[in-house]
Backbone:
C-alpha cells in the first residue's frame, strides 16, 4: 500500500514537470497522511490544472463519507471492476506528485520505516482517481485515492506493493478522459520504469504530527 509520502518540490519544478501554466505556492510537506489535503494535477475542459483533494476516496453514491478512511489506495488489478472506483477510472483520473514515499520493513525490533524516492531525486507522479460527494447539507467534498500495484524488483524487499508511478510520456494517456481504455489501462500494467532508491529513516515518521525535513534523512537501520 501507500500510506505516507512527501512532497516538497518547488512550484517552479512542479510547473515545469507537468506543463502547468501556473502553480500555487506550495508548502513543503514531509509526512503527507490519509485524511489530509493533497496536491494533484488533472484535465478539465482540455486544460491541465492543479487541484487539492482530501486523501481517502468517497464514492459519489456513498451514504457516509467516513468510508474514505478505508479507501486511501485502490488496487490496479481490480480498480476497473470495483463499484467504488470504476466510474472514477473512466472519468476522473489524476496525477499526485510526490518526491518520495514511505514503507515499513519488518525487523526483529519492530517495523523500520524507509524513504523511497526517484534515483537522483526525480519528482514522481502517482496514478490517482478523484471523486465529488455531496452531503445532506449540499456541501461538496472532493477526495482522491492512490492506485497501487505489485512491487517491482527493487521494492520487493521492502513491501509487496507500491504506488503506480506514471512515466512522463504517459501523463497524457492517464489524464485524458477521452483516451481509450486501452491507453489508460496500459499505464496500470506497464510497470514502473522509474529507477528508485531507498534508505532507513527515523520512526518519527510514524506520527503524522511530525512534518520536518529530518524525516527523510537517513539513519542507521
Residues:
Amino acid at each position: 500500500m501507500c500510506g505516507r509520502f512527501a512532497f516538497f518540490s518547488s512550484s517552479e519544478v512542479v510547473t515545469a514537470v507537468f506543463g502547468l501554466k501556473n502553480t500555487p505556492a506550495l508548502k513543503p510537506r514531509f509526512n503527507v497522511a490519509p485524511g489530509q489535503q493533497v496536491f494533484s494535477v488533472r484535465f478539465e475542459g482540455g486544460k491541465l490544472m492543479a487541484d487539492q483533494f482530501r486523501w481517502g476516496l468517497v464514492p459519489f453514491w456513498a451514504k457516509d463519507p467516513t468510508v474514505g478512511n478505508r479507501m486511501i489506495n485502490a488496487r490496479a488489478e481490480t480498480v476497473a471492476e470495483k463499484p467504488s472506483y470504476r466510474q472514477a477510472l473512466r472519468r476522473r483520473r489524476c496525477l499526485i506528485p510526490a518526491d518520495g514515499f514511505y514503507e515499513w520493513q519488518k525487523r526483529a525490533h519492530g517495523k523500520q520505516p524507509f524513504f523511497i524516492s526517484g534515483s537522483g531525486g526525480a519528482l514522481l507522479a502517482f496514478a490517482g482517481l478523484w471523486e465529488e460527494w455531496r452531503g445532506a447539507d449540499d456541501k461538496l467534498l472532493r477526495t482522491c485515492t492512490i492506485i497501487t500495484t505489485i512491487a517491482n524488483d527493487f521494492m520487493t524487499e521492502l513491501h509487496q506493493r507500491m504506488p503506480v508511478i506514471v512515466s512522463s510520456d504517459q501523463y497524457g494517456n492517464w489524464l485524458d478522459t477521452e483516451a481509450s481504455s486501452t491507453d489508460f489501462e496500459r499505464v496500470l500494467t506497464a510497470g514502473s520504469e522509474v529507477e528508485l532508491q531507498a534508505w532507513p529513516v527515523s520512526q518519527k515518521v510514524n506520527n503524522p504530527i511530525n512534518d520536518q525535513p529530518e524525516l527523510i534523512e537517513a539513519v542507521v537501520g
Remarks:
- The longest strand covers residues 124-134.
- The domain at 5-216 is CATH 3.90.1680.10 (hypothetical protein yedk fold).
